[in-house]
Amino acid sequence: MSPTGVDTHVHRISNRLGWTGLKETKSPEKTREALESWLPQEQWQETNILLVGFGQTVCLPIGPKCSDCLNKDLCPYPKSQEGKKGNKKKVKKKKAQDSTSEEDEDDNGETSKYF
Ligand code: SF4
Hints:
Elements: H1 8-17, H2 28-36, H3 44-57, H4 77-81, H5 87-108
Helix pairs in contact: 1-2, 1-3
Bound molecules: iron/sulfur cluster.
């Protein structure tokens, strides 16, 4: 496994699903370490491919399509967002930031072989 960290989609979705443990990981590298601690190596490549596509179509950085998601009954993320104050304002601000940073991350090719 490459030491360059995981793809931004894998980082985000793994945290939303609680795959990184009880606490949210703060960097793709920490997410990679968390995933490697329990996910069998033979599943790393397929999981990476699935999560990247899933992150581009359903579990979007802003406005994930939780109501259409097959994971909605087991994923803790939708409940964690209920009743959050000022969510719309924060979402707008984060969307502006993410649209730039995600493009940069995707374009520089700094992802590991699997994650
Ligand atoms: S329920 Fe929402 S946050 Fe959880 S995996 Fe599905 S789209 Fe992502």
